[in-house]
Amino acid sequence: MARKGIAVYPGSFDPITNGHIDIVQRALRVFDHVIVAIATNRAKDGSLFTVAERVAMIGEVFKGLGSRVKVDSFDDLLVNYTAKVGANVIIRGLRAVSDFEYEFQMATMNRGLKPDVETFFMMTGESYFYISSHLVKEVVSLGGDVSGLVPKSVLRRLQKKIKSS
Ligand code: ADP
């Protein structure tokens, strides 16, 4: 398949999981460049990791891919940020049907705000259906093993963070 252009993959990534990584890898089969963009307007929300920590973790995960994957953060409207970086595609990952309603609302709103930006949904691999950053944090905080759900570098940071909090 011929690859084309830049796509923005927005989210909280608090922290990045193997499910997110699966979506980035799938997106790289279609697009030349993927910008993993951390939405910082949701940072007041009680995120576990700071934006700088999340940028560092995502950078570590994709360092082998050179300029094909960039990490950034944004606090303006997603569609404006997308246009600003020269992209016209937003990638979102779909797990179960439960993601659909929220994603449908967001995509419809974004299309209304900027019709020339397309939302592109990618279905996750079946091993990642049940992974969410939220669940990973909860399981780690209760002493459970999430080693198959996040990269090793993220696991180390998670354990350290939860011990110190
Ligand atoms: P948000 O707060 O925007 O939902 P997340 O970091 O939780 O941010 O997720 C970012 C995107 O990645 C969303 O499109 C979400 O549906 C998707 N995603 C999260 N976990 C997975 C997974 N395990 N498999 C596929 N997509 C996922």
Tell me about this structure.
The protein has one domain (6-129): Rossmann fold, CATH 3.40.50.620. It is globular, with a radius of gyration of 16 Å. It has a five-stranded parallel sheet, sandwiched between helices. By secondary structure, it is an alpha/beta fold. 39% of the residues lie in helices and 19% in strands. Bound molecules: adenosine-5'-diphosphate (ADP).
The CATH class is Alpha Beta
What is the rounded distance between the termini?
Answer: 46 Å
Second CATH tier, the architecture: 3-Layer(aba) Sandwich
Mean pLDDT: 93
As for the CATH topology, it is: Rossmann fold
> What low-confidence regions span 5 or more consecutive residues with pLDDT below 50?
none
Number of domains as seen in the coordinates: 1
Q: What integer value in Å does the Rg equal?
A: 16 Å
Strand order of the largest sheet: 3-2-1-4-5
Could you state the order of secondary-structure elements as H and E? EHEHEHEHEHH
Count of runs of 4 or more consecutive helical residues: 6
CATH superfamily: HUPs
- What share of the residues lie within helices? 25-40%
